[in-house]
Amino acid sequence: MYAAWTVKHKPKSLAEVVGNKEAIQKFVDWIKSWDKGVPKQRAVFLYGPPGIGKTVSVEAVGNDYRLEFIEKNASDYRTEDAVRRFAGLASQYRSLFGGKRIILFDELDGLTGTADKGGVAAITDIVKNAQCPIVLIANNAYDPRFTSLRNYCLLIEFKKPAASEVLKHLNRICTHEDIQADENALKFIAQRSEGDVRSAVNDLQALAQGKKKLTYEDVSWLSYRDRQNTIFNVLRMIIYGRTCVGAKQAMDMVDVDVDMLFEWLYENVPAHLTDPSDLATAMNSLSMADVYRGRIRSTQNWSLTRYVIDYMTAGVAMARKNTKSSGWIPFKFPTRIQMLSRSKAERNMRLSIGRKIKRKCHMSAVRASKEVIPYLKIIFKNNEEMAAGTAKWLDLDAEMIEYLAGTSDKADAINKLLVAKS
Amino acid sequence: MLHGRLAQTLSFEMWAEKYRPKTLDDMVNQKEIVERLKSFAKSRNVPHCIFAGPPGTGKTTAALCLARDFYGDVYREHIMELNASDERGIDVVRETVKTFARVRSVGEIPFRIMILDEADNMTSDAQQALRRTMERYTETCRFILCANYSGKIIEPIQSRCAPFRFMFLPREEQDKYLKCIAEKENVKLLKDGLEAIFEVCSGDLRKAINNLQAAASLNKPVDSKVVYSIAGRANPADVRKMIEVAMKGDFLEARKQLREMIQKYGVAGSDIIRQIHTEIFRAEIPEPWKIKLADVVGEIDYRLVEGADEEVQLSALLARLVEAGNDLGKTS
Question: What's the pTM value of the predicted model, to 2 decimals?
C-alpha cells in the first residue's frame, strides 16, 4: 500500500522533530503558562518558510502533552461566520473531555479576500477574548493583512533546519524502510532541499521507494527544486524517468502546452543524455513525435496527439542506457523560438539583397543569399570604394548597405561616396 | 581629384559577372560541350537540353552564350530565365512557363529559349506539369534545364532532353582564368594564393572569382593567408563542416550551425539533407558505414517529406552522426 513518507514517518513526539529547538521550547513554555490562568497573549503566531515543521511541531506538542486539537486549515471555509461558529464555540469552553483544548488555524496565508471574507477580522476578535490557547500558523506573519492580529499574538519564528539535522531525519527514515543509503546520497538530498524537510522526504521517497540500496548516482541528477517552474520537475520526470508510465504521467503534473514542452525537451535533452547512442535514440524519439505532429497538422486528427506524447515522454525516458549521471545540470529555456523571430528580420533582409543580386548575376535569390552575400560583406567592410560601386551596380538601398557594412559608420562612408556621384 | 576618383567607382560590376564569357567562342572550358552547342548555333536549331554538373562549372553561362549566339545582343528579348529555387511550385509552370512557351518568337528563329536554372529544386508536381508543356510547345519554345544533379529530374523529362555533363574545371584552366582577371584588375595574386583558392573552391569558378574579389578588396597582395581567412568567413553555411563537428561528437555545436543555416541563411531542409547525402560518400569513413548512414539519411528525408519540422528532423540526423563518429572512434 502506498503511503506518503511525510505522513508515515511524521515525528510523533518533540524529540523526533527536526531542528528549531528554541522555537519549540518557547512554544511549550507558552502552553504551560496557561496552567496559571489566561496569559497576556492568548495566541501564538508560528511563522516561517514551508516544510520546516511548524504544523508537525504543534502536533508533536499535542501528543506529548495530551492536548486536544481543533483545526481549521485552508481546505475549510473561513468566512467570518464560519470562523465564529467554529472558534466561538470552542473557545468558550475550556475543557470538554477533561484534557486541554487548543484551537489551530493553519495555513493562514491561504485566507483569500473574497471566499474567506472577514476571516482575519473574526480570528482577531476570537484571539482577543480567547479562553483557550490559539495557535496561528503562516509562512509570513508580516503580511499587511495580519497587522492588527499580530498585536495580540506571541510571535515565534521557525527557521530552516541545518542540512545536518535534515540528514539525521532522512537516515532515520532509511533505517525504518530498511534501505541501505549512501551517506553522500542522503547528504545531497538534504542539502538540495534547502531546509525544506518535507520536500527532502518526498524526494527520498521518489528516489528510494522499493529499493534496497540508494547510491549517489541515483540522486545526483536532482537539481534545486524550483517551486515557480514546475516545468523543471516535468522535464526531470521525463528525461530521468525509469518507467514509461512514470514519464507519461509527467504530462499530467502541469498544465503545459504539448508544443511548448516539446521545445523544452528538444532544447534540454542533449545536455542530459550525453552518451552518443542514448542521444541518438532520444533525438529519434523527438523526431518521431514531430512526425506525428506533422500528421496531425495535415489530417487535423487531434487524437494522434497521444502518440506525440508517447514519443516525447516515454520515448525519451527509455533512451537512457549508458549515460552516466554527472551531477547537477541546469535546464535551459528553449532558445529556438526566440532566435527564430530574431533571425526572421535578418533572413528577409538577406533575401531582398539576394533578389537584387539575382537580377544581375543569373542565380536564385536563395543561392545568392548563401553564396554571394558573405563575400559582399567582406568587401563592404574593407573597401568603401568597391562597396559603393557594387551597391550602385546592384541598386542596393541604404538599409541593405548598412546590413552588409555591419556598422553605421562604414555605411555612412559608403553612402557618402554614392550620394556624391549622383 | 576627388571627382575623378568617384567617377571611377561609379557602378562596379561584380567580377563573376564582368568576366562571364559572352559567347560560346569566349568559353575556354568544357570544350566538348561547347563544340556541340556551337553546332546547334550553326544549324539554328537546338533540342531541349539538360545541363547537369556541380556549381560554378559554366552551366548557366553556356545557356546564356548559346542564346546570344542565336539571337545576338538582343537575346534577352527571346529568352526567359526562371530560377526554380525561388519559384519551385507547380503554379509557376502552369502560368509563367506556359505563357512564355506558347508565344511564337518574332524573328528569323521560330522558337524562344527558356532557361530553368537550379531545376533540380523543382517539386515533382511542377516537373510533371512541365513535361506536358515541353511536349506541346516544342515548336515555339526550347527548354534548357540547369541542375546540379540530373537524378533529381524526373525520367520523362530526362528522356525528352539532350544531356550534357559539366565537369569541375581542371586546375590549369581555373588558374588561367584567375590570373587573367587579376591582371586586368591590377591585383597582385601570389602563387600560393592561387593554390589556396583552388584548394578552397576546388573547381567552382564562381566561388573562386568571388573569393579573389573579396581578397582583393583588402588592398594587399593575395596570398594563401588572405584566401584562407576569406574562405573561413565566407562559408558560414558549410554542411561539410557541420558533419565534421557532429562526427567529432559536438552535437550542440553542430545543431547550432544547422539552426543558423535554416534560420539565418534560409537554406531549405531538402537542400541540406541532399548535401549531407553527398558528403557522406565523400567523407573519410569506412565503406560499410556509408551505406548505413545513407539509410538513416533516407529515413529522415522521408520524414521531412511528411511535413515535419526541418530543424528537429535534421538534428535527429546529426545525433546519428555523433553516434556513428563515436563508434568509429572505438573501432579505429
Answer: 0.55
